[in-house]
Structure to design on (436 residues):
């Protein structure tokens, strides 16, 4: 028998591979940070001897969820400024609060976010914020996979100061975390409305030199579209196309207010989209035309956005919203079926982040990013369709095990890399300062 490090057994294995393979009474064999084999349990137990075995107890074994857009440390601002328009929320509350951020606040806020995400089945997230070296360190220590980048804009930052230093900070981050097994650094201008064309071109050059992904808020509201049209005579998407910013390594967050021509441009340049329905709903930004984007063949993932505009990081709640929002918006119950939405939260989300070859599905050779869902719950009985249960019935609290890169980060709802009580105490202390 071949020795392996970990065997997850006795569950329905939802692989999310290209064939949509579902293995009843299946198992996943893991050696080091990678999946060795995904097969029927009997076949694997006959071939492999595991150092550690996790019994899924008849539950669902599936890829960890991928949160394609968030601001992790905004857990510190959860509920701080609710029920406000986007620009009022940003300019009058969030930007002033962020001006007082420190490395330690971002570090502790990210640890809280990682705790919340691991507990609710997210194994990979994409972050845009300040003091992103703190985000990278917190995610690394928590054991999560993360794409992170320092937000850049035309005005000075409380982290790096003038914008020229922001460019240097980004390149330093890329160099520091280069080839890390968990952390990928992205180049992240905030948006076209707070970044000049010259700044966007300089950031694009940095991404090109380093083979890094780029992330930007794009067409988040009609007000943004009107602003960019007034300045540049084009929609935000058209403006980015004109200055040469659109590319296949660009992750466009939100994409709510799009014209048909915008969608064609996104497809032509193979731009990836991060859909954040709950944040868009809460800020009354609008409803992104996701069914149309999918018809264009554009890769779309799902994000929670930050806790100041959601107010949680539960991807199961988010995928439920994705499915139902577009059904009621189009008055078509067949739109955004459960299998499509599950793919958006797993393999398609990984593709959005440029990680589709390494995570997002359970296949031999891929990284072992795996969650187990306990289905022995009243709200999950009976189960006729696994995808329907995941999208319409399951919650983050049904996740009992989370594994990233072959490391068990949570088992039986107990975190192994983070002291939740200590993390909560640290953020509660930060909140006292914010209140003051």
């Amino acid at each position: 028998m071949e020795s392996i490090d970990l065997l997850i057994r006795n569950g329905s294995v939802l692989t999310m591979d290209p064939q949509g393979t579902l293995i009843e009474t299946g198992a996943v064999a893991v050696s080091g940070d990678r999946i060795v084999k995904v097969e029927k349990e009997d076949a694997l137990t006959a071939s492999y001897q595991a150092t550690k075995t996790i019994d899924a107890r008849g539950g669902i074994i599936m890829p960890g969820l991928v949160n394609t857009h968030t601001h992790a440390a905004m857990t510190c601002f959860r509920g701080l400024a609710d029920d406000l328009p986007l620009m009022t929320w940003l300019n009058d509350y969030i930007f002033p609060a962020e001006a007082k951020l420190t490395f330690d606040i971002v570090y502790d806020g990210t640890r809280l976010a990682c705790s919340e995400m691991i507990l609710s089945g997210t194994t990979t997230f994409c972050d845009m914020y300040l003091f992103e070296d703190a985000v990278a360190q917190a995610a690394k220590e928590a054991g999560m996979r993360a794409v992170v980048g320092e937000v850049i804009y035309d005005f000075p930052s409380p982290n790096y100061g003038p914008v020229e230093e922001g460019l240097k900070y980004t390149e330093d981050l890329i160099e520091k975390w280069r080839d890390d097994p968990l952390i990928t650094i992205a180049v992240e201008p905030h948006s076209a409305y707070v970044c000049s064309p010259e700044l966007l071109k300089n950031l694009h050059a940095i991404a090109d030199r380093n083979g890094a992904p780029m992330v930007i808020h794009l067409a988040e509201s009609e007000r943004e579209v009107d602003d960019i049209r007034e300045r540049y005579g084009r929609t935000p998407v058209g403006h980015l196309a004109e200055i040469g910013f659109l590319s296949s390594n660009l992750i466009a967050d939100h994409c709510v207010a799009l014209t048909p021509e915008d969608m064609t441009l996104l497809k032509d340049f193979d731009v990836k989209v991060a859909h954040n329905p709950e944040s868009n709903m809460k800020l009354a930004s609008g409803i992104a035309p996701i069914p149309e984007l999918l018809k264009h063949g554009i890769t779309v993932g799902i994000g929670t956005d930050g806790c100041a505009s959601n107010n949680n990081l539960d991807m199961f709640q988010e995928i439920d919203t994705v499915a139902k929002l577009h059904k009621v918006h189009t008055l078509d119950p067949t739109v955004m079926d459960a299998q499509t939405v599950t793919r958006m939260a797993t393999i398609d989300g990984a593709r959005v982040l440029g990680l589709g070859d390494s995570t997002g599905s359970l296949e031999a050779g891929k990284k072992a990013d795996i969650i187990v869902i306990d289905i022995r719950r009243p709200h999950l009985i009976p189960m006729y369709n696994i995808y329907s249960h995941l999208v319409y019935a399951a919650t983050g609290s049904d996740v009992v095990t989370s594994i990233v890169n072959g490391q068990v980060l949570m088992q039986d709802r107990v975190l192994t890399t983070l002291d939740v009580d200590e993390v909560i105490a640290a953020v509660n202390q930060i909140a006292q300062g914010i209140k003051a």
In short: The chain has two domains: 2-63+368-415, 65-352.
